[in-house]
UniProtKB/TrEMBL annotation:
Pathway: Cofactor biosynthesis; thiamine diphosphate biosynthesis; 4-amino-2-methyl-5-diphosphomethylpyrimidine from 5-amino-1-(5-phospho-D-ribosyl)imidazole: step 3/3
Protein name: Bifunctional hydroxymethylpyrimidine kinase/phosphomethylpyrimidine kinase
Pyridoxamine kinase/Phosphomethylpyrimidine kinase domain mapped to chain residues: 15-263
EC category: transferase
Amino acid sequence: MTARPPLVLTVAGSDSGGGAGIQADLKTMLALGVHGMSVLTAVTAQNSRGVHGAWELPEDAVRAQYRAVVDDIGVQAVKTGMLASAVLVETVADLLAGTTAATGVPVVVDPVGVSKHGDPLLAASALDAVRTRLLPTATVATPNLDEVAQLTGVVVEDEDGMRRAAGAILAYGPRWALIKGGHLPSGEEAVDLLTDGSEELWLRAPRHDNRHTHGTGCALASAVASGLAKGLTVPEAVRQAKAYVTGAIAAGFALGGGIGPVDHAWRLR
């Protein structure tokens, strides 16, 4: 009998264009050798030019999907993405708290606030629930600089700002913060900072001129969750994820008339 791969669950929205969301998560998980499972929280009408509509699923549907997977199949890591509303944030936070209390599985929280195109994917009324309910469940929180500003008010312009941002995120309760500095205004490197408040790991990679970077954040968080499901430490999982995403960005391709996706399958080609 073939050995079963590690099990990773993504709780996120659907991107009909296939570049981000559930679709990006499952592609990343497949590329990294884990079995991806999904809880759909919202449906978007989305393409390379932007999000043209979004509809969240009922709380009962989200809860039923989660219970169906976790109670029967089990899970070795969970990743969250687009949760859309305060009700869904609170629902998912309750589910995660129960799972981590029972099994101790790691949770990667990508606090998705806006799409690559600048379209809002989280209601303003949900921000407090993310801060007080969702982030405390996280083994690793992976905000980008826009999400840091949205959640903490810290505006990051340099690496010292990334340290301040990490401290502000950690104050809400995650064990580790991975601050994604890809949007820093200057520098030739894409710089990320992983810290638990005492240990720091700076991850640096050359910036690519490729504009087709849709799905970067989803891929990174899913890659971290995949590494944790394999038993890697948080720093090891983040190093692996950074290497994977750097390659995916370099291989990103045009799709439609706007911003194309990173190539989630670049390692398989």
